[in-house]
Description:
The structure holds two protein chains of two kinds. Chain A starts with a helix and ends in a 14-residue tail after the last helix. Chain A is mainly alpha-helical. Chain A has helices at residues 2-32, 39-55, 60-83, 91-112, 138-160, 162-172, 174-179, 184-210, 217-231, 236-256, 262-276; strands at 129-131, 134-136. Chain A contains eleven helices and two strands; from the N terminus they run ααααββααααααα. In chain A, strands 1-2 form a two-stranded antiparallel sheet. Chain B is an alpha/beta fold. Chain B has two domains: 9-142 and 289-365, Response regulator (Rossmann fold); 145-272, Rossmann fold. Helix content of chain B is 45%, strand content 17%. A five-stranded parallel sheet of chain B has the order 2-1-3-4-5, sandwiched between helices. A four-stranded parallel sheet of chain B has the order 7-6-8-9, with helices on both faces. In chain B, strands 10-13-14 form a three-stranded antiparallel sheet. In chain B, strand 11 (345-346) and strand 12 (351-352) form a beta hairpin. In chain B, helix 3 (78-90) packs parallel to helix 4 and helix 12 (308-327) packs across helix 13. The longest helix of chain B is centred in the first third of the chain and has 22 residues, at 2-23. Classes of the chains: A mainly alpha, B alpha/beta.
Amino acid sequence: MSELLQFLLSGVTVGAVYALVALGFTIIYNASDVVNFAQGEFVMLGGMITFFLHAAGAPLPLAAVIAILATAAIGVAMNKLTIEPARGAPVVSLVIITIGVSILIRGAAQLIFDKQIHTYPAFSGDDPIHILGATILPQSLWVILGAVAVFIGLWLFFTRTLLGRAVLATSNNRLAAQLVGINTTFVMTLSFALSAGIGALAGVLVTPITMVSYDVGLALALKGFAAAMLGGMGNPKGALVGGLVLGLLEGLTAGYLSSQYKDAAAFIVILAVLFFMPQGLFGRKSTDRV
Amino acid sequence: MKKHLTTTALAALASMGLAQMAHADIKIGASISATGPAAFLGDPEAKTLEMLVEDINAKGGVNGEKIELVSYDDGGDPNKARTFATRLVEDDEVVAIIGGTTTGTTMSILDVAEDAEIPFISLAGAIDIIDPVKPYTFKTPHTDRMACQKIFEDMKKRGITKIGMISGTDGFGASMQAQCKKVVGDYGIEIVADETYDPKDADMTAQLTKIKGTEGVQAILNPGFGQGPSIVTRNYKQLAIDLPFYQSHGVASDGFIELAGADAAEGVRLPGNALLIPDLLADGDVQKPVVTAYKTEFEAKTGTPVGTFGGYAHDAFLIMTDAIKRAGSAEPKAIRDAIEATSGLAGATGVYTMTPENHLGLDLSAFRMLEIKGGKWTLVE
């Protein structure tokens, strides 16, 4: 019993990390249909900048806030310098641009920061919380809390605010959105700032668990992307559920089958889901008017 | 008469040329993975070589000649390493090569160096590099098989017969896992649980819970490097597992204690080298002055703690310059012969004695069994 619970808690810890990364994908995707493969680099920047500010003497909360703002600014710069000039290019080209940006950020990070692995203290200490013989670290609760908060924020943003609807409208039909008076350039800038900020927040929260180095972005982005696809790209609920499901699958496979097949099992389930539900668990049905 | 003059002039010119040649620098080539996935290892190696070349030149060089280091960054890519090795041999005309941070890049350089008959000292771990022995190839790191043997030796002393293994799936972890399985039987130890994790995984409590629940496990061994072993160590404490816990030489650095946290790392044992514990070495220890000097200088210069991998580069350079000194010449063949005759040379990793049959020159005594106590390394006797 306590073994099963430990496998589940391990899955939730990992799943919350995936979910938080997956949530970062949703805004840019909703605004432009672009899957931003530099999202993992935003996570890395969040962790790296926080570590170096903290090491330089800044208190952790201040370091975290500066890291999130700085990363958001980098997100805006990315949009202004690479995506906006290529406006009108097919989505595939834009996706490839984001891969290029991710390589650039990774290269710059190893020069500006360093190539070592870093971590900073967990927010509420390292003493595990015991639940029926199984344990979870307090930092995992912070990550879960962060994922849920971002989820609620995004859900409110997309359904309750005019700006959120403007983002969705821009994605649906940029020209039509412009015609009804939506400043689509601003919407794109905003979506990059928010996505980068959420990515950095993810980095700030997960670093005490996963540790950070200049090259962690790629692996996180791939798992986060898989989680987002599983849940349904662009849907905050899908990102949250997709991340947790992916984490639980890994935890249970490692526990009951073999850790050798952990990643394989998770990806087989994702393939199976996408085969029967190509839009993911919660994806919107795409209806194109012809 | 005129002709005679011309000849004399030519001869004079030629001898001047020769004289200049004799004063030219000794060119040593390097291909190191200072960036890319193996940057973790290659970065300190590149910095170490740079520092040592500066040092030796400031002291007047070797045999009165300055050393010139021609260094390339192969980014951990074996194809690039092959290109750079070819360039070192053909364009830069180096007399020897140091490098090959990973086993993959080493294998590429090895081919080129053997063909060109240029002595080559590798910085990578795999035993295949020097077994079977190739005439021009040497290496400084102990093999992962030796690390396994050192660990099993210590387990045997503690009366442990059944262990669980949790290994990283990266090259280092996978290779050591395989080597450990090969030699474990020699020590009367049985591996009853064998789990793996991806080097970028965030949580290994599932694997550890499974091992903990396996009947009869008396100790756990974790081969791997990077952040993986630090996370495993934290999870070990999180699950309050009270079995003896062994890490590999892959994480033998102060950085590991820092990442895992002194609290979680308490009681962890691993085979490390003298470099980690200069203060604990006996005063008569031949390695003591070497490691103290290297550690002090490296840490002052780079501001980062010295680690096992930089030590490999340190030793490669030491063996190379020692050989050139003894050979009294910078001819590749003479250097090769001198490297093979290296005897009792104290480096950061261990004391090297090469023979025609052994191009590594270290034995198990190069490893010292260390235990972390109160956030510090201690020697296990």
